[in-house]
Design brief:
Elements lengths: L1 H16 L3 H14 L6 E3 L2 E3 L1 H15 L10 H19 L6 H21 L3 H6 L1 H21 L22 E2 L2 E2 L8 H17 L7 H16 L4 H15 L7 H18 L15 H16 L15 H7 L10 H9 L2 H22 L4 H20 L7 H18 L9 H4 L13
Antiparallel strand pairs: 1-2, 3-4
Helix pairs in contact: 1-2, 1-3, 2-3, 2-5, 2-7, 2-17, 3-5, 4-5, 4-15, 5-17, 7-8, 7-9, 8-9, 8-10, 8-16, 8-17, 10-16, 14-15, 15-16, 15-17, 16-17
Length: about 450
Amino acid sequence: MELYTGLIAIGLSVLALMSRPGTAVGIVIFSTLIWPEYLRVGIGPAEMSAPRIIALLLVCKFVLAPRVKLPKISAVDLLVLALWLWTIFAALLSENGPKPSRMVGAGLDTVLIYVLARIALTTEKSVRDLITPVALISITMCLFGVFEAATHYSPYHQLEQYRNWVNLGDEAGQRLGFLRARTSTSTPIFFGLAMVLLAAILWATKSHARHIALHWVAIAAAVLGALTSLSSGPWIGCAILFFCNFFEKKTKYIKPMIGISLLGILFVEVVSNRHFYHLISYLGLSGGTAWYRTRLIEVMISHLNEYWLIGMDGKSTDHWIQEIGSQASLDIVNHFLLLAYLSGIMAPILYIASHYYAVKQAIKSYTRSTEIPYRHLVFCMASAIVALNITSMSVGIYGPALIISNIMLGGLVSINQIAPKSRIPLGRTQGKELKNPQFNKV
């Protein structure tokens, strides 16, 4: 499969290198799902998937191009880089030492992809150019997902024999009479989460779409694709995304809603003999997996002293499995806990901080601009980051979802730096849309 992966990567790389920056980033997103990301080409210490190869070539092109203006350094940039460097540092402190392939792969899927988005998505025109490839892959993968869920067959199934790892548990299970679609990804929840992120990008770029009817079709396709995974995480992710975007034109209710939510959590903690996160058990499509997630949180918190500094470092977790008591192997289905397990608690702290500052910058950009399309873009991208973090409590993020999430993060930070200045003080608008907003044509 290395030959086919290489040929696909070369073909898409040529197309991306000949395209405008926004379209090129869209091609990277397209490549994460159209061809299995787990099929890679070994080059030195790195295992290069198609999106990794395309992104690396694009970054080299943009950095070496004399006319490309690099963006200003942001606090989020430093945090993303610090997270990767910390994982290397933690690995160096471990007894087993760092694994080069893992360290390089983590840098490619996070720092490299983030840098690509920071350099390429620096204008609203580049954001508009992102739409076509994202819409195309959303509709394509939706059709694959629906077909797989309904017929229990997918052409991607034949490629799984070339994957060099085995999933924990039964990933080919059925729910509600349908097969859980995973298409080109390794698990249904990875496919579902990737489709949620595509829906988030399309929703955020809705005000920049040239053909709004087709754009709505693409959004609906992304959402339907997420639903075909029949996984609680993506389903909840879609609900949270819609819920957050609901407040775009009702921002005055955001703080009261946060306050009510915190009071609700406090109330559950006081009156119930179980913690508030046990409510997950009532939201999941499978009560058993939802119970496992809540029990995993409790067990890992109780054993924090074993991994708080540099992670578990390959130490046995058999005693954790016995305490959880639901399966024979440990599957860390929580991205924050996964980061801590691999590299200590500093890793999730840096991860959360990078997302916090990106959203904080987005709030400032939103409030200092009266340009309606720009405000919609910033608000919905920030909402997507919030939805991603909530959904991350039910899955460790790998593969396409990891790549797309870092494109979203980098894109949001770049978009924050191009906020058009308000010609009318925001206070005079009183939260209402302007009838004839001026759109900055870039």
